[in-house]
Amino acid sequence: MAELPIVYVDMDGVMAEFDKGLETKLLQADPTIDLSDKSSDFYLHKRLKTPEAVRMAQAIANSRGFFLDLEPADGLQEGWQRMIDAGFHPVVLSKPLSSNQWCAAEKLEWLDGIMGPKVADEAILADSKADFDGVALVDDRPETPNFDRATWQQVMFSRHYNLNVVTDFRIDNWRDPNLESVLARCAVRYASLFPEPLI
Ligand SMILES: [Mg+2]
């Protein structure tokens, strides 16, 4: 039997509430901080208004425990199971924050606790997502680097900073009823671009 089609899943902003975690800790450090900018800039620190706030955000994101404390996205476990039930093999594919020395280890510990040991064991932490072959990548980043040389189709996971991206492949959240149909279209696209050899 052929292997199940792989769907890669990003962590920050898709599985884990990165911006919410950072905003919460920023407000704890300085309740007057301006977090009102909900523009299309992907990076939260670019939406902050003062150099002090930017420095604070970077220090928080680089701190021990930051990645371990992030909340899971609403409906994550149910969405993960729906992908499995629809015949896909979801695999975590995440780029650790290079400036945080604890990030990679904490991401794996987080996955083990939230998703279980199988998901953690299969997780791929890598700098270049385009190097990995699969039918889809669920990601919140408006322009995933090197997407043009990847085999997967990016499925945009809606966040305010990517709503301006025009795509036929988008889910609003993990409870989106279109999850299965969007992934099915990714599989059709993959099969048309990379047909299996006949022998
Ligand atoms: Mg992300």
Summed up, what is this model?
The chain is 34% helix and 12% strand. With 199 residues, the chain is α/β, with parallel strands linked by helices.
Structure, described:
The two termini are 14 Å apart. Helix 1 (18-29) crosses helix 2. Strands 3-2-1-4-5-6 form a six-stranded parallel beta sheet. The radius of gyration is 17 Å and the shape is globular. The mean pLDDT is 94. The chain contains six helices and six strands. It has helices spanning 18-29, 51-61, 76-85, 103-115, 117-122, 179-193; strands at residues 6-9, 89-94, 124-125, 136-139, 153-157, 170-171. It folds into two domains: 6-16 and 71-193, Rossmann fold; 18-61. 34% of the residues lie in helices and 12% in strands. By secondary structure, the chain is α/β, with parallel strands linked by helices. Magnesium ion is lined by residues 10, 12-14, 139-141. The site of magnesium ion has 7 residues, from loops.
Quaternary state reads single chain
Query: How many DSSP helices?
Result: 6
| Class from secondary-structure proportions | alpha/beta
SSE arrangement, N to C: EHHHEHHEEEEH
Largest sheet: 6 strands, parallel
Shape: globular
Q: What is the CATH first-level class name of the largest domain?
A: Alpha Beta
